[in-house]
Amino acid sequence: MIVRKDPELTGGLPSEFGEHHVEYPDNQTLIEKYNTLKKEFAVLAIHPMRNEGTHLRIQVSTSWVEYKRKGLWFGISDWSDVEFQHDCDKQTYVISSVKLGGI
Fold first, then answer.
1. Total domain count, the chain
2. CA-to-CA distance for 65 and 81, rounded, in angstroms?
3. 9, 15, 45, 72: least buried by Cβ within 10 Å?
4. How far apart, in whole angstroms, are the C-alpha atoms of residue 20 and residue 22?
């Protein structure tokens, strides 16, 4: 899984969980990957959390990465809004809803 690097958002996230491996490439690494593959490829992006009263909402989007005219292009194809609510009894946040969207 490839997740676009954002030091403020992805800096503390794990690169391994269970049988899954996650890469957090920076822009230069994305350019190198595009030049190697010679075609666009998908990456996930994690967006800043929003506090909406009793809920926390995080948006995760999928973009297709392309490199042309000496610049990276990100074409968003779909996204998910993940909403969390605090469970006071368990002292943890639990997913209360997931809304899917796409172009």
1. 1
2. 21
3. 15
4. 7
| Domain presence at residue 2 | no
Write 61-65 long-range contacts (CB < 8 A, 24+). Answer: 63/4, 64/40, 65/30, 65/33, 65/34, 65/40, 65/41
Q: How far is residue 12 from each of residues 7, 70, 80, measured CA to CA in Å?
A: 8, 30, 21
Per the domain annotation, does 96 fall within a domain?
no
The pLDDT tens digits along the chain (103 residues) read 899 999 889 988 899 989 999 999 999 999 999 999 999 999 999 999 999 888 899 999 999 999 988 799 999 899 999 999 988 898 888 999 999 987 6
pTM of the model: 0.78
Let me know if residue 72 belongs to a domain. Answer: yes
Structural domain boundaries, residue 30? 7-48+57-81
SS3 breakdown of the chain: % helix, strand, coil, rounded to 5? 15, 55, 30
